[in-house]
Amino acid sequence: MSSTPSGPSSTDAVLETALPGIAVHGRGKVRDMYDVGEALLMVTTDRISAFDFVLGSAIPDKGKVLTQLSAFWFGQTGDIVPNHLISTTPEDYPDVLRPHAELLRGRSMLVRKTAPVLVECVARGYLSGSGWKDYQQTGAVCGVPLPAGLKESDRLPEPIFTPATKADSGHDINISEAEAGRLVGQDLIATLRDITMALYAFGAAHAETRGIIVADTKFEFGLVESDGAQNVILIDEALTPDSSRFWSKSEYRPGGPQPSFDKQFVRDYLEKISWNKQPPVPSLPEKVVARTREKYIEALRALSGRDLG
Predict the structure, then answer these.
(1) Residue partners of 46: CB distance under 8 A and separation at least 6
(2) What is the CATH architecture of 14-113?
(3) Which CATH number does 116-251 carry?
(4) Which of 33, 65, 136, 188 is the most exposed place for a label (fewest CB within 10 A)?
């Protein structure tokens, strides 16, 4: 499928899903979850959010990129931490889902049920986004002190762990590791920190060989019981343009914002039209939709070496 602006328009996108007879487990900004008994079905739509709002337009194939890139990383990181993925092949799904195979193909995962840990685990290797704002005000990021004199987008002396609270709506709130420990337990947050930093180190090293810098990324984890113990597994998505800040290695120039493989064109457009970041949400022109789709697919190809399926 072509990744040029002459590709699918926003009218070809999947904004919402409806699976008659299948119990809805929950709907997020991007994903629709269904309960299929022993497992959950996670369907990634083409919805796109910016400034904490789901926009009126969608990005065709975005859900497929997120699903297929996550599946790639799940396959690569299983020796670091188990994950929730059972299958991405509709033919392997429960019979009740077979009538929806074409909708689900390429954009869905059958996953294990877990007890989600209500803290997002963020690894930062570069000073950007909310971390840069925090550093300018405090000289630290989420309570982690950093050397003076760093510039925006500078590489950090070493990657840092900066958890955040999960919000059902609105923006997640950065917190310190100590605060996260008080929320979920010090032993658990220490385990999640170690896993997060190992995942980031692996992902960042692989991405650099493909010409991409992983400036920061977030992971989510769940707990499953096995032999009377609660074990950690990786859930949701992994190292995608929605959960990470990807920069072009060849274009990297510290001292300001960097060109990225994510919603950059969307955010730039919304700032250009001076949207007040309140309802009603705007729709996007086809040029912005096409350029955003192109960057998502470029990230999939570069990182996984695979075309969109």
Answers:
(1) 13, 14, 15, 58, 59, 60, 61, 62, 63
(2) 2-Layer Sandwich (3.30)
(3) 3.30.470.20
(4) 136
Tokens found for residue 6? 């002459």
pLDDT score recorded for residue 7: 65
SS3 content of the chain, % helix, strand, coil (to 5): 35, 30, 40
Q: Is the preceding peptide bond at 20 cis, omega within 30 degrees of 0?
A: no
CA distance 164 to 93: 33
Phi-psi region of 264 (alpha: psi -120 to 50; beta: other; left: phi over 0): alpha
Domain locations in the chain as residue ranges: 14-113, 116-251
Name 136's Cβ contacts closer than 8 Å, sequence gap at least 6.
none
With beta carbons less than 8 A apart as the criterion, state whether 117 and 221 touch.
yes
The reported pLDDT for the residue numbered 3 is: 41
Give Rg (Cα) of the chain. 19
Bridge-based pairing of strands 115-116 and 47-50 is unpaired
Nearest alpha carbon to residue 237 among 91, 28, 51, 97: 28
pLDDT per position as a tens digit, 65-100: 999 999 999 999 999 999 999 999 999 999 999 999
State if pTM tops 0.90. yes
